[in-house]
Structure formats: C-alpha cells, structure tokens
Amino acid sequence: MYDRSCNIYLIAPVDKIITITFKQKNGNFECDNNHDNYIDSLDGWNYYGHSYPATNDPNFNFKTRKQSFCQPGTVRAFSFNAGMIQYRFKFGGGFTFKVEFHENKYPCTIFIQGSENIDGKIRLDLNAIHTRDCTIYIVQTRYTKGRFIGLSLEITSMNIG
C-alpha cells in the first residue's frame, strides 16, 4: 500500500543557492520505473499545482528541472534559492539527505518569504550580468513567520534596451 506523494520545500536566503546530496535509503524500498516508488528533485517549486518558475518559461526547460534523486551519492545543485524533493514509497521507507547553501553573487530568479531581512529591502544588481528576464516570487504560506500586511515594491532604477 502506498501513501500519498509528499513534498519537501527548501528555501534559502536570496543570495544563496541550494545543493542537496542523497545520503542513504532507510527501510526496504527501491525506486521503480513505473513511478510507484520514487524520490525526485525539482529545480524550483510546484505549489498547489503551479510550477515556479513556470513550466513554459523559455529560460528554464521544465523537463531538465525534474530529476530522479534515488541513488545514494546523487548530488543536485538548484539554479535558484528554492527547490523541492518529491517522494512516494511504501509505509516504513525513508531517506536521508544533506542540504548545503552556497553563495550566489548574482541572483536573478529568486524566492522571497515573509520577512526576508531586517530592513525589508532586496537588491538585484543585474546590469549586463544576466541576458534573460529575472523574476521575484513572493512566497506567503501559513508557515511563513513574517506576514505581509500589504506590500510596497519600489524599483529604484532600470535600463531597458
């Protein structure tokens, strides 16, 4: 008997990216090709049926963003400061993984949750570094410590062209 599919949502500060390492399987289960037992990693989030960044975003191929994460020793570096692990296996199974945060000097697509920092300011210095559109996803879950009581966005400078 299989339990439902479950998700682990990972988020780091906006100036970090996440790397996960599969350490070991716990219990007696094997991932299979018919997707009854699986552990997958997703570069970005799938939240209430919506994918972030969007599945049709031309900068990020959705098919390469989702990868199997079922063999001990597998390492997955996410492109953003957010990622997730999706899993399903028979009751009694489990797994262990390690999470690391690495500096991202030039964040482009970022996820912000609640009170991300003390002064409430996020700065993206894009200039000529990124040749694609950048996006800020504002994440508000019931578990977010800080609550947005209204939101004010200010763009201090922009060059187009």
General description of the model:
This protein is an all-beta fold. It is built from one helix and eleven strands; from the N terminus they run βββββαββββββ. The chain has one helix at about 60-65, and strands spanning about 5-10, 15-25, 40, 45, 50, 65-70, 75, 80-90, 95-105, 110-115, 135-140. The strands form four sheets. The protein has a four-stranded antiparallel beta sheet with strand order 1-8-3-6. Strands 7-2-9 form a three-stranded antiparallel beta sheet, with no helix packed on it. A two-stranded antiparallel ribbon has the order 4-5. About 20% of the residues are buried. One of its GO terms (cellular component) is extracellular space. This is Corticotropin-releasing factor binding protein N-terminal domain-containing protein.
Q: Strand-residue fraction?
A: 35-45%
CATH architecture title of the domain at 6-106: Sandwich
Approximate shape = elongated
CATH topology of the domain at 6-106: Jelly Rolls
Q: Considering the protein shown, what is the CATH homologous superfamily of the domain at 6-106?
A: Spermadhesin, CUB domain
Round the mean pLDDT to the nearest integer and report it: 77
Order of helices and strands: EEEEEHEEEEEE
Strand arrangement, largest sheet?
1-8-3-6
| Main beta-sheet annotation | 4 strands, antiparallel
Poorly predicted regions: none
Helical coverage, percent range: under 10%
What's the CATH C level of the domain at 6-106?
Answer: Mainly Beta
Task: Please compute the radius of gyration using only Cα atoms.
Answer: 18 Å
Pfam family, one: CRF-BP_N
Protein name: Corticotropin-releasing factor binding protein N-terminal domain-containing protein
GO molecular function, one term: corticotropin-releasing hormone binding
GO biological process, one term: negative regulation of corticotropin secretion
